[in-house]
Design brief:
The structure holds 2 protein chains of 2 kinds.
Chain A (H helix, E strand, L loop, with lengths): L1 H17 L15 E12 L5 E2 L5 E3 L6 E18 L4 E3 L4 E5 L7 E8 L1 E10 L3 H5 L14 E2 L4 E13 L2 E10 L9 E6 L6 E3 L4 E8 L16 E2 L4 H7 L15 E6 L1
Parallel strand pairs in A: 1-14, 11-15
Antiparallel strand pairs in A: 1-2, 1-7, 3-4, 4-5, 4-6, 4-8, 4-10, 8-12, 8-13, 9-10, 10-11, 14-16
Chain B lengths: L2 H16 L36 H11 L12 H4 L52 H5 L8 H9 L2 H11 L6 H13 L7 H6 L7 H13 L14 E2 L13 H4 L8 E2 L21 H11 L18 H12 L4 H5 L9
Antiparallel strand pairs in B: 1-2
The chains are: A mainly beta, B mainly alpha.
Chain lengths: ~270, ~350
Amino acid sequence: MKTIKLTIAAATIILGLSACKKKDTTPTAVDAGTGSVSVSLDHRFGMMNEQVMAIDSTVIHPMKGDTMTFSKFKYFITNVKFKKADGTYWTENESYHLIDLSKPESLKLTFANLPVANYTEMAYTLGVDSTRNVSGAQTGDLATTNDMYWSWNSGYIMLKAEGTYKNNKQDKIFAFHLGGFSGANNIVTKRTMTFDGSNVLNVTKGNTAAISIQVNPRLLWHSAPSVKTLNMIHMPGAEAKLMALGDGGMGFFANQLYSFKLISVK
Amino acid sequence: MLLEKKIVLVGVILLTFSCKKEGKITPFSPSSITFTQPSNFPAPHYTFENNQLTQEGFELGRYLFYDPILSLDSTISCASCHAQSHSFADHNIPLSKGVDKKFGRRNAPALFNLAWSTSFMWDGGVNNIEVQPLVPLTSPHELGESMTNIVLKLNRSNFYLTKFKVLYGSGQITDQHFLKVLAQFTSMLVSSNSRYDQYISGKINFTSEELAGYALFKNNCASCHREPLFTDYSFRNSGLESVIQDSGRYRITQNTNDLGKFKVPSLRNIEFTYPYMHDGRFTNLEQVIAFKSNGIKNYPTLDPLLKTPFAFTKEEQKALVTFLRSLSDYEYTSNPKYAEPVR
């Protein structure tokens, strides 16, 4: 009798403890667990990424010869997803990341709860998709308080580069605000980075796979003229496209070979 | 007490409390309200998607609309240049004064039926009602404040912290919350009870002069000033200048075909909103109709519909002005729910 009572009592406790346990959100047949991926962005200048780019330090453009000091360098990486070897994707929710060279914490992106798997590709977008440009007030990294939004001509500033350059030993100001999400002015660019050979992206249970990338903004001036000729862009249009996309897709947003270079996966 | 009983009791207590959600202690939940579409109006453009319309949200937007805290030096509110008695246009001045007594570039438009508007500002540069306030708030010629400072100031105010918490449950006011509630107020500004509306719904008869004016209007003006909203929201060069002073829509599109084009303004409540045109050059309706009649200037982007002068007679001009006055909605300009709230 006592045993039965105890059993009922114990069962009640178990019931109480487990009554409202949330359902597992991962519906995978065999739950192999999850891991994380971090992406570190190291900003470089120069032809061979040999110049370190940092706020308030001087760099020299390898093709134009311009001596430039950046006081601001910000841009959006958005809609990040990782492709598994089986061709399916893990997609980040609300995937909007404002990269700000003055904020070290923004230079390392962390993606948590990726299913354990071998991933062959990272797909991402430079710029902010047209939907978020026309859907009213946003939040997080897309908040208007981040100074990356044009009030008078609705839309996100997708890249902001400000600073000074030398002209006849004098410091002059440059300010490039690049954007444009529709029609002929669209600069939003979808990109991929492939993991193969020595750079295999294996997400294992409870661990963080670390991706290191060098970013080289010199490509903004691949097709655009010297900063001495063009030092201001404040709206979407042909000039913004020249910097972001460039001739023959050689600009900073469009260049798949040199603007974002995979260094290692660990 | 027996051990079993104790254990059962613990289990029951656990059962009782295990389903309680965490941290959801709100004094009361906001009350939903619905947007009323006037029977003779089409469906609105703004649908409150991702912006649940509530009485508290609307009221909070109204507080903000009238609060000078939003300007750089706390001297100017939205209502300073958008007065209800003028159908939320400025107080009969061509250009409005902002902080530091700087003048704006264009005539402050009247605010009503904004939920139907497909774009905002004279040049249509703003694509969503929620982000429209960013222009006047941050322009140095208007409220001259930064969004960062506005959010900072709101978060220092116990009045606003309490009111926003009811809506969003968060102890932190964001720019998104702020812009959403402001849009709840501005999109609820509906004007649909003019003599014209009463005539259309069969409640009253027009005078013979109103009827004559309405007939002229339908034949000559209604293709751009489309009923019942009295605009088609397109951008057109109305022939004000043969040398363009203000590039208008071109500023947004950089397309030379848009030089000197401005959004077709609604003619509702036009009696209250003088002076007229994007620069406030005409002080009364008689001048506007006289200009439309014989004063239109040629320019490559002039609207094709305006290339032949209307050449209205004096009687026709008078009848048109009389009809335009039938578009005045006195209920709108005196409705207490849009008036400055008491704090």
